[in-house]
Amino acid sequence: MTCFNNPDVETTVQEALKAANVAVYCGYVLAEWQLADTTDDERGEVTSVSFTSNDAPLTLDCVVSQ
Q1: Which of 4, 10, 44, 62 sits at 20 to 30 Å (Cα–Cα) from 28?
Q2: What backbone torsions phi and psi does residue 6 show, to the nearest 5 degrees?
Q3: How high is the pLDDT of residue 1?
Q4: Under 8 Å between Cβ of 32 and 26
Q5: Reported pTM
Q6: What is the DSSP letter of 44?
Q7: pLDDT per position in the chain (66 positions), as tens?
Q8: How far apart are CA 61 and CA 33, in angstroms?
Q9: C-alpha triplet 24, 64, 10: angle, nearest 5°
């Protein structure tokens, strides 16, 4: 079962992500994220995220675009 708990919603979301050229990785759980170095009074942007799975870990670099 997915986080939507509704197969119709899941299909619609998957189709929208595919149309937007978004890569989808299934079967992973967020392990940690890395933040950019900043001064003490500001928060850094996420620079990468790491996931675990039953098969192999996955780390993805993050890019911020505005």
Answers
A1: 44
A2: -155, 115
A3: 59
A4: no
A5: 0.66
A6: P
A7: 577 889 899 999 999 999 999 998 888 999 999 988 876 666 778 899 999 999 999 999 988 666
A8: 10
A9: 25
Residue 2 dihedral angles phi and psi, to the nearest 5°: -100, 180
Boundaries of every domain in the chain: 7-61
The first and second tokens of residue 59, run together, are 């780390």
Which residues does residue 39 pair with via DSSP β-bridges, in sequence order?
Answer: none
Angle value at C-alpha 39, between 36 and 40, nearest 5 degrees:
110
pLDDT at residue 24 in the model: 87
How far is the C-alpha of 29 from the C-alpha of 7, rounded, in Å? 21
DSSP class per residue in 6-29: -HHHHHHHHHHHHHTT-----S-E
Please state, in angstroms and rounded to a whole number, the distance separating the CA atoms of residues 54 and 45: 28
Tokens 């850094």 belong to which residue? 44
